[in-house]
Amino acid sequence: MAVATSAGAGDPGLFTPGSVTWQMHGDPMMWVAGVRALYLQALHPRAVRGVTQNSDFRRDAWGRLRRTADFVGTTTYGTTEAAERAGARVRGIHARLTATDPDTGARYGLDEPALLLWVHCAEIDSYLHVLRRSGFPLTDAQADRYVAEHRADARLVGLDPETVPASRAELAAYFAKVRPELAAGPEAREVDDFLRRPPIHPLLIPARELLWRWVARLAYASLPAYAHELYGRPAPAPAAVTRELRATGAVLRAIPARVRWQLPPKHILRAMARLGPDARPDPDKLRP
After folding, report:
1. Strand ranges (E), 13-171
2. What residues does the ER-bound oxygenase mpaB/mpaB'/Rubber oxygenase catalytic domain cover (predicted)?
């Protein structure tokens, strides 16, 4: 059941505090879901070439992750104006960039609708899959509403909302259609290698071994079976992955939200300051 917006004066933004998105995106398992999205996105050869050919992925990967998280935070919890500005920046970047198909030599723009749609669907599928599987309370109807809500930010990056899946069934049909185009080529292997062992300062290596590899391993484990097949590593037992996702979700959600939300750039705290305490993301607001 959606919660009515009773927050104080201020622009509620693109999604508003009454949306499924508002409640979901405050969950700490979004970090695991974001890494899963990277693994999935890398399996589209044309899309991943757009990343590796236009940036030093290994040198700037952390910056790319932060920028993606900032975009999601801004479009979810920022004002409508801030969301529109973020979308305009993304469209501007994509319009300037091209990639080359190594087999044909043909160049193509990164603002091709097919590529934008793949990136969008991989993200939405990952956010929804990881959060639900880790114990976030969401009915099937609410899950469908979440998918439909994200036609709004699909428009921001340059997609026609009418061409974007608006339910779990439409999302599944999209993945079935695009599946023959997917492959774990050299660029996907590069992303895989980075996510498994990202280069960092030597003093931070213990933290990487303790925390990052755990997040990356869990994100990879939650991928669909065909992704494991393409990457060439055995798929873990689904029941074991679900247990670990739920355990991880329980641990992370036990950390007080106000503590978690202090991490920069503090989108949620700024939204609550703008709209009032009733704008606080809370999964209980989604319970029937």
Report:
1. 98-100, 107-109
2. 22-254
